[in-house]
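Posting for a labmate who doesn't have an account.
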Amino acid sequence: MAFMSRFSRSRSNSRSPSRRDSEKGSPILSIAELERLLYTGKTACNHADEVWPRLYIGDQDIASNRQELIKLGITHILNCAQSKWRGGAENYEGMNITYHGIEAHDSPSFDMSVNFYPAAEFIHKALSMGGTVLVHCAVGVSRSATLVLAYLMIRQNMTLVEAIKTVKDHRGVTPNRGFLRQLSGLDSILRASRKTT
């Protein structure tokens, strides 16, 4: 409960003077404005930070530290930097961890949007079952953050700005510019679908 009350306070009501969405009064920001927003608030990162109840964003170090995973109570891992050289589910044998790997590149030209809904469903299912999820990539600031932002938008009905503010209050994240464009596109699609329902 302490996390939820801290979370509630962390969702700032301050608004940008930019274009606004009439549905929620949430700003629709340009990519440059989103980048400026990402550079405010918390900039430091631990190997893993809880950014939503039982949802952590982390790096490769935490993902390979079995003792820390046990200490955090991790039951599900979403690896956004899956590769044949680093291994995958076999790293967690005997730990009762459900693993899902995505081979994604931290490049503005990489299409991360194809992973938005599958990743959101993996996270949602794990949290719905009472699990604790680690979403990680190599450093834990771009690929993993992008998929957590998508989850918050798809399953928690947040706008992109709300999702960024929620995450950045707990971890410094910087999705690359291409990922921000894709998240902005998702934001537009979700806003339009909410207006019609």
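Reply:
Got it, the structure tokens are right above this. Confidence is low (pLDDT under 50) at residues 1-23.
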